[in-house]
Structures are given as structure tokens and as C-alpha cells.
Amino acid sequence: MSQETDFFKLNVKKEEMLALGIVYTSDLDAERGFTKHNLDPLRIAKEHVLPFKDTIIEILKNKDFKSIARKTNIVKTELKTKLNLEDSDPDFEFLLEKWETFYKKNGADPYCSYDKFLNIHFDGMDILPYESEKPTSIRIDDNDNFTPIDVTYLIRINPKSKTPHSFLLNVKFFNRPMRPLYYLTRYIDHCPAHNLKSGEESWYSEILTNIYEIEPGIHYENPNPFIRYKFLINRINPRKIAETYVTNHAKELKNSFEREDLFVFVRRLGYKFLKFSANQMNEEYNDWEDVRDHKQLYENIHNRILNDSFCGFKDLYKHKIIQIKIQPDNVKLREQNPREEIDRFDFDYLVTFILESKEGKGQKSFPFRIHYGITENRLSSYSIEDILSSDCLRSTVVQ
């Protein structure tokens, strides 16, 4: 697959010229990941992403392989193989030196194809918000907090050319005058995920039907273009994840509703629900770590569901579920430590339970956002993060 992707088929609402040849692209679905954390993606692009163009221009001007390699996320085992190194555990500096030596000797880069990138002339850049971490403040004293901001943007160098070069740029900046940190976490189609072989990602090129039946009563819905593109960047077929992992757990929840077994459902409710439960009990929720404290929160949720005073969930146990809809909502490759050799993927899926309509009443549905963690192709965790059909969680402040 060439680098001519469906970038410009996203839900683009507007473009803004930040500087000569530098364009900010506004996509509502992409910006949602920022605005939910009260971050302004356009302002961040202007103040913290735009300056990176000078770094790129300088690297291209000087054909500075070492600088761009130093800023690149690597997979050590892959790079060692490409450099024909012995089976050892070299540190990053050693690998960087061997990588640069190989490039200078052979005039080619076996890992990222940076030799091709370094021979272009900078002609412009597009900037699209991609992902943001939830800012977490560190209290210094009563009058001061230290807050790191961690965001990622998709940038395309020379977007009007036939072969634009696309990167995911991770930017870390702070709520005080400090130099931002820049890190290239992806060179799209090159490293650390390499060029696709023909047919490997045929799912992305399929003629889309909006709904696909996984099995009777369970339907898969295609994600919006931006989320679909995020799955492509991470080389993951979202429908396969739905079929392999999400469907089984959706059926598990459905069975718990039909058996009126609240235990399975309640124990899968995540942070927002626990905080809401604590507020109902007039307690302060501070990431209760004591298992006994969690038990109190779960018992409160259990009892309130039975009394129909917790987000209307009682209906899930009193009415027949006639359909389940599954739709990808987000995918994130965990890269807090880019030197790790273990792949851990985090996914969010919208799982909607549709109830049989009662006479004279409209059809009820319960769309949940469910988070899945997959480590080394095994499901390692999942929790129900939100309910989209009710304002119950928004009736209190949830950070």
C-alpha cells in the first residue's frame, strides 16, 4: 500500500493556514480526543507542533540521519535483525551508532528508508490532531502544580506531492516555560510498522457496507473514517478484533442480563461508575485501592440497579435483548516505553444492547463504551467506561 491513503477522505470541516505552506486540518472525530481533556488542538498545533517544521527543515538541509534516527521510535529486536547484530541486548546509543554507521557505509537505511526521506526538498506540511493523553497534574505546593501535556499529531511532509511522507509526532510540553520534547512514534508505512505486502490490509480497501452480521443478533458497524484510519496505521483489522474478542464479552454480558445476574455486569463497570456510586454514598472517590472499599461501591451499584436508581440499568434485566451492535471507537498503541518489546494495544468499542420494544413505548437501547487491553494477542483487561444513552454520569463532576 502506498502512502497515498484516505487522509483527505476524513470528516474534514475546515483548513487553516498556520504559516506559508503549513496547513492545520480540522477533523471533528480527531479533535474529540483533545476536547474531552479540555485541550485546544488548534492552539497546541500553533504553539507546539508548528515549531517542529524548523527541525525537519534543518534535518533535510543537512541530511542529518542521526538526528532523525534519535527522534524515532524503534523496536530493538527488529533493528538488530536489520543490522545483522549478534543476539545481545545493546542499549539505544549502541544501536544508534551502528544504525548510523550502516547508513553512511551503504547509503541506505535498512530500517526506516530514511535515505529516501532525506533526499527530498521541504515543500510544506499538513498537521492533523491524532491523540492526547489525559493531563495529570503533580502538586508541588499549595500554590503550584506541575502539569505535563502529552499529545500526538499526524503530520504529512510535502502533502501535495505524489509521495508524501507521513509521521505521527508525539509532543510533550508543560504548564511552564520549558523546552518541548518531540518524538516520531511512526513513520507511516516504514517504521516501526513496515510497508504492507499486497493484500495484507485488504479490509481497508473493501467496499464498505455499513453493517455486517457477525452472527445472528450481533451486528458490526463500520467506524468513522478517522478511527478506521487509526486502525490502519496500527495494522489492525477492527472487524477481526470485534469478532475475536468483543463479541464473546458482549454475549457474556447479555447472558448475565438474561440470568438477572448483576455480579458479572457490575464488576465490569469502570472508573466513572465507581465515582458516581461513591457520590451517591456521599463519599469522596480517590481511586479507592482497598478491595473492601470497592466492594462497598459495587454493592451500592447492585442495590440501586435493583431499585431502579442507577442509570436506568434495571431495564436491561427486565426486557429481552433483541440485538447487539458493535462499533470500533478508538485504538491506541501503548508506547509509554518505546523500547519495550511487548505489544500492548488498547481499544474502545461501542457495544449497544437494543431491547424489545413494549406496546406503546419506544425501543430502548443501551450504548456502552467498553475498553479492552490486549497484550501479546491475549485479552488482558476490559471494563465498561461509559454509558452514552444517559446523563446519569454527567450529573456529577467526573474528571
Key phrases:
single chain, 399 residues, alpha+beta, six-stranded mixed beta sheet, globular, disordered N terminus
Walk me through what this model shows:
- This protein is of the alpha+beta class.
- 33% of the residues lie in helices and 28% in strands.
- It is built from 14 helices and 14 strands.
- The strands form three sheets. It has a six-stranded mixed sheet, sandwiched between helices.
C-alpha termini separation: 41 Å
Q: In which order are the strands of the major sheet placed?
A: 1-2-3-6-7-8
Main sheet properties: 6 strands, mixed
Low-confidence stretches: 1-8
- The whole-angstrom Rg is 24 Å
Shape: globular
Mean pLDDT: 84
Structural class per helix/strand content?
Answer: alpha+beta
The helix fraction, in percent, is 25-40%
Number of helices, where a helix is a run of at least 4 consecutive DSSP H or I residues: 14
The share of residues in extended strands comes to: 25-35%
The helix/strand series, from N terminus to C terminus, equals: EEHHHHHHHEEEEEEHEEHHHHHHEEEE
- Counting DSSP E segments of at least 2 residues, the number of strands comes to 14
